[in-house]
Amino acid sequence: MKKVRKAVIPVAGLGTRFLPATKAMPKEMLTVVDRPVVQYAVDEALEAGIEHIVFVTGRNKHVIEDYFDIQPELLDTLTRAGKNEQLASLGRLQPMPGTISFTRQQAPHGLGHAVWCARDIIGDEPFALLLPDMVSYGDKGCLSGVMELYRQTGGNVIAVEQCDPRETASYGIVGKGARTGSGFTITSMVEKPAPEAAPSNHYINGRYVLQPDIFDILDTQERGAGNEIQLTDAMVRLAQRQQFFAAPFEGRMFDCGSKDGFIQANVAFALARDDIRDTVLEPIEEMLVSRRRLSQAA
Ligand code: G1P
């Protein structure tokens, strides 16, 4: 079994759900507490043992590249001001030279097309894929569980969670087969099915380990749901000759590409921090109390 060394993080999406905030700034740079959304995906990948990150970017995303580079002026200023804590925190975020690559998706043809754009950099080895809008919250990052199941089963592994059965049309949905290792065998996959056509309520939550054979399939993948080249459709074709397993995620994913998920993530991550928990929680509690009073009075 080949080791999973590289991870693809697609960051080319336009972020229309977040306009006007994303008019001049990539949605991946919106902050959850004090770190950009994309940093959470990178940290999760590194925690899971990934050695090289491949970003699939687009026009107007160069600030992501700058974010992962060093900033000599900023480092000088912090050094002169003796701001050692901030310096150390920047140092911890800094990827080693040569461990990060950028390639561009030149037009928004869908997730399948974005992944296909990374094919030359990935080469002939299995790779992880993290959709950065989905921010993982829990004791262990979601990708660690996917990698764990991959070490048990090989093949292709996808993280899943259960959604409200009425919401299957928002996600890729998998059919549930026999229990296998720490997960289960996937019997079918379908992108954004109506509830009556969904094989289950187990949805694909944005973390994958895939075999490189997916690239040959993506070469000829036709457009699917939303008139986009869908990764799920290519995985369905790959599943005709390779196994797919699901790794249920025990933590929680926040969809930071949506306004409510983004705000929930900010609250959850703030409440997990000793330095700001109380000052965030108290006013929220007060707001909830006065909201309840208002609705009782109405
Ligand atoms: C993509 C995938 C879908 C998955 C979802 C998770 O959809 O195609 O299978 O469930 O991410 O966020 P998108 O959200 O890009 O429409």
Summarize the structure in words:
The chain has helices spanning about 35-45, 60-65, 70-80, 85-95, 110-115, 120, 140-155, 215-220, 230-240, 260-270, 275-295, and strands spanning about 5-10, 30, 35, 50-55, 100-105, 125-130, 135, 155-160, 170-180, 185-190, 200-210, 245-250, 250-255. The protein is an alpha/beta fold and about 300 residues long. It has a single domain, classed as Spore Coat Polysaccharide Biosynthesis Protein SpsA, Chain A, CATH 3.90.550.10. The chain has a 5-stranded mixed β-barrel with strand order 8-11-9-10-12. A two-stranded antiparallel sheet has the order 2-3. A hairpin with a 2-residue loop joins β2 and β3 (about 35). α8 (about 215-220) packs across α9 (about 230-240). It is globular, with a radius of gyration of 20 Å. The mean pLDDT is about 95. 1-O-phosphono-alpha-D-glucopyranose binds near residues 131, 171, 205 and 206.
Number of contiguous helices? 11
**Order of strands across the widest beta sheet?**
8-11-9-10-12
Largest β-sheet summary: 5 strands, mixed, barrel
Secondary-structure element pattern, one letter each: EEEHEHHHEHHEEHEEEEHHEEHH
Q: Which ligands accompany this protein?
A: 1-O-phosphono-alpha-D-glucopyranose
Number of strands: 13
Keywords:
298 residues, alpha/beta, five-stranded mixed barrel, 36% helix
Secondary structure elements and pairings:
Layout: E1 6-10, E2 31-32, E3 35-36, H1 37-47, E4 52-57, H2 62-67, H3 72-80, H4 84-93, E5 100-104, H5 111-116, H6 119-122, E6 127-130, E7 134-137, H7 142-153, E8 156-162, E9 172-180, E10 183-191, E11 202-210, H8 213-219, H9 231-238, E12 244-248, E13 252-255, H10 259-271, H11 277-297
The structure holds 1-O-phosphono-alpha-D-glucopyranose.
